[in-house]
Amino acid sequence: MNEDRGAPGSSASAGDPAADVVEQGGRHFPSLNWRPPRGAAILLAVGLIIGLAAGYAAGNRQASRNVSPPIASHGPASPAPAPAPQLNIDKMVPYEAGSALNQAGGTCSAQSGRELQLGVQVTNGSSAEIRLGQIHTVLPLGGLRVISQQWAPCGAIGVRQDPPPLLPGDSTWFSVTLNVLAGCPGPLPVQFTVDYSWAGVAASVHLPGFSDLGQVPYTGCARG
């Protein structure tokens, strides 16, 4: 007599789909060893890959739209460098301007009470004409005060203050009148700076004048 496969308690044959069903209390549950068909798994994997690719492409498009373009700078332009100064060759002096006018070595002096007049001879040592200008008396140790000055030797009266041009090799005198403030001016130095123009260029020269007044006659000064 053949056994009924559908009868309770009978074992299912191998390969029967019903073998994946577990009977419990008259209820049928899928077996835990059940696996989806291979075709369905492949379709599920392909769909997952397509979804990921679509999401990545959409994210790239959104990121490219969110990138802000570079902002152009509208600040002030950097100033152009200043041009290098140009030398005016026509105004350059080929001669040593400080030695164009020099102290020739002659000096003079004259006293009137507490006033002392000191004079120096200057010479044009250049090959061009010199126009003489202002005289500046330099008193390193003080003790004296300038009263007046003139382009003339000591003792001259009524002399013009603007001397004629000094030709090459020529000499002239200037003198300065000082008020003696010290009891004896002997140790006091007196120097001069003279303004002039030579070859169309303004210049000045510092002259030694008198290193001290020890050799200058001065009445009333007791000398040791």
Q: Which keywords apply here?
A:
224 residues, mainly beta, Immunoglobulin-like, 2 domains, 4-stranded antiparallel β-sheet, 3-stranded antiparallel β-sheet, 1 helix, 9 strands, 13% helix
Description of the molecule:
This protein has 224 residues and is mostly beta strands. The chain folds into two domains: 47 residues; 112 residues, Immunoglobulin-like (Sandwich). It is built from one helix and nine strands; from the N terminus they run ββαβββββββ. A four-stranded antiparallel beta sheet has the order 3-4-7-6, with no helix packed on it. A three-stranded antiparallel beta sheet has the order 5-8-9, with no helix packed on it. A hairpin with a 2-residue loop joins strand 1 and strand 2. It is rod-shaped. The N terminus is likely disordered.
Beta fraction of the residues?
Answer: 25-35%
- What does the radius of gyration come to? 59 Å
Order of helices and strands: EEHEEEEEEE
Helix/strand-derived category reads mainly beta
* CATH topology tier name of the largest domain: Immunoglobulin-like
Strand elements, count: 9
The number of distinct structural domains comes to 2
Strand order of the largest sheet: 3-4-7-6
CATH class wording of the largest domain: Mainly Beta
**Biggest β-sheet, characterized?**
4 strands, antiparallel
Oligomer: single chain
C-alpha geometry: rod-shaped
Low-confidence stretches: 1-15, 17-25, 81-98
Number of helices: 1
Q: What's the end-to-end separation, in Å?
A: 173 Å
Mean pLDDT: 73
Based on the structure given, which CATH architecture of the largest domain is correct?
Answer: Sandwich
